Amino acid sequence: MTTLNDTSSEHPADSPSGPSSQSPAADPGLPFDGLPLPLAMLDILRQLDYRSMTPIQAASLPLALAGHDLIAQAKTGSGKTAAFALPLLTRLDVRRLAVQAMVLCPTRELADQVTQEIRRLARFEANIKVLSLCGGTPMRPQRDSLEHGAHVVVGTPGRIMDHLERGSLKLDALNTLVLDEADRMLDMGFHDDIAYVASRCPSARQTLLFSATYPEGIASLAARFLRTPQEVKLLEQHAGSKIRQRFYEVDHPARLQAVGKLLRHYRPASTLAFCNTRQQCRDLVEQLRAEGFAALALSGELEQRERDQVLIQFANRSCSVLVATDVAARGLDIAQLEAVINVDVTPDPEIHIHRIGRTGRGDEDGWALSLCSSADKRRVASIAQMMGFEPEWHALDELTAEEGQPLQAPMVSLLILGGRKDKIRPADVLGALTGEAGFKREQVGKITVTDQLTYVAVQHAIARDAVRRLSAGKLKGRKVNVRALEV
Ligand code: ADP
Ligand code: MG
Predict the structure, then answer these.
(1) Residue 361: which domain range?
(2) What's the burial of 36, exposed, middle or buried (CB within 10 Å: 0-12/13-18/19+)?
(3) 105 close to 132: Cβ distance less than 8 angstroms
(4) Using CA atoms, how far apart are residues 148 and 163, in angstroms rounded to an integer?
(5) pLDDT over 50 at 253, yes or no
(6) 82 Cβ below 6 A of ligand 1
């Protein structure tokens, strides 16, 4: 498919704007004192000026403190250390001078940072010993320190393995194993070392796996060493901060009409609306069209050519709402999506994250608006926990629906019967419209040439004229059949 993207013309000055007065303030985060932590620990957190939990901490601490194994993914600098340090520290029996927790890190620098952070947090109780065991320094002093006893060891897999083989490190009392920066440890070829170290740990233990990314190897590592782990994944920070999520409670039968209300209020130029079933997709498109919206369904039942046509119309802004199921939207990569509407909240948090991650790309802001019945609220709670945010609930009647002013798609698609096989190129179509026909370049949008067909987006105001002129003139020396596509 060849496309010619005429940029500026596609964004008339009246581009959509959300209601700025309602923009959420910077997220203050949840306080630590809702967690089952000793008061002395809360004091230390205050002294360190940790006023509230970071998102990954909010998502993982309740689970880790409850004893679950965990796979937690969040980018560097998001506060993962405290997310595993607090659970392992509060579980220590300080009177028992034996290694009760071990943290594996990929490098000495990272192990040193983790050691320091754990030591700072460990001040909530006197005499907690935290020992760093890394390569690049002599074994002997480390062996001596181990003989004196430690509660927590932090180290690189290779050196920890050495100590285990020489018998200087004993793990019978271990109850928490942490794999920090697991993705990097795998990159650095530590898989077998990790496997050896884990095999030497008591099987009744808690295992916490932290990672900045989630490459394939992580799942198999987790499958081997974790027990029915809970998963906590945070969206990339850039996406998380650009996507503004709102949840609207609505009775099930009223939700199709609620979509129109959202569209009239937020006025996004392009929206992808997700339904859980095909029937609901059909019903929604019908409803939206009746309300005057340019909506199309992307259903799994469409033939390839029809599917291409729908996607072309959406991409060239002649269709403003695309309604799809997750299956039909698979692999879809659409730039400039101002909003995602979840007509049904999906029961799968991963799918939710995937859905809303389609908006707020690059430098653009995006709205992720979800409709849910009171029965769906549990789904929202688990999504919020997994993503580490506090859901923002709104009422539908806050929406200032401007009746009689349906949102019009900025462009209309013209279909030309003739394509690459007929040697038509985008430049020929643009030339025909801006040459003899006399239209301005800004009035013409995206031009897409497929094997047999050509689609050209033009502004509403010139659509009829453009059809007339193109039909009267010639393309590549031949008369062509042209018509406007109704949406
Ligand atoms: P990660 O392991 O995810 O890369 P770190 O655990 O190293 O991130 O934390 C990054 C920085 O944020 C550290 O300086 C840490 O002290 C600080 N930090 C962690 N949690 C909080 C919090 N809740 N409030 C304020 N600062 C925090
Ligand atoms: Mg870290």
Answers:
(1) 243-398
(2) exposed
(3) no
(4) 15
(5) yes
(6) yes
16 close to 270: Cβ distance less than 8 angstroms: no
How, if at all, do strands 2-4 and 101-104 pair?
unpaired
Ligand 1 contacts CB of residue 81 (under 6 A): yes
Q: Whose CA is nearest to atom 5 of ligand 1?
A: 79
Same domain, 317 and 423: no
216 shares a domain with 163: yes
Is the CB of residue 415 less than 8 Å from the CB of residue 483? yes
Closest protein CA for atom 18 of ligand 1: 79
* 47 CB within 6 A, ligand 1: no
Which amino acid residue places its CA nearest to atom 9 of ligand 1? 79
| Total structural domains within the chain | 3
Identify the nearest ligand to the CA of 117 by its number.
1
Closest-CA residue, ligand 1 atom 13, reads 79
Mean pLDDT (the chain, rounded): 87
Per-residue pLDDT, 405: 59
Q: Are residues 444 and 307 in the same domain?
A: no
Q: Whose CA is nearest to atom 25 of ligand 1?
A: 50
Q: How does residue 387 score in pLDDT terms, banded at 50, 70 and 90? A: confident
- Overall average pLDDT of the 264-276 stretch: 91
Ligand nearest to the CA of 30: 1
Regarding the beta carbon of 142 and ligand 1, being less than 6 Å apart is answered: no
Instruction: Please list the residues that pair with 248 across neighbouring strands.
Output: 371, 394
Q: What pLDDT was estimated at residue 333?
A: 62
Summarised one tens digit per residue, pLDDT across range 289-300 is 999 999 999 887
67 and 188 fall within a common domain: yes
Quick one: which of 137, 124, 345, 147 has its CA closest to 246?
Answer: 345
CATH number of the domain encompassing residue 322:
3.40.50.300
Please check whether residues 154 and 204 belong to one and the same domain: yes
Distance 86 CA to ligand 2 centre (A): 14
Ligand 1 atom with least separation from CA of 81: 6
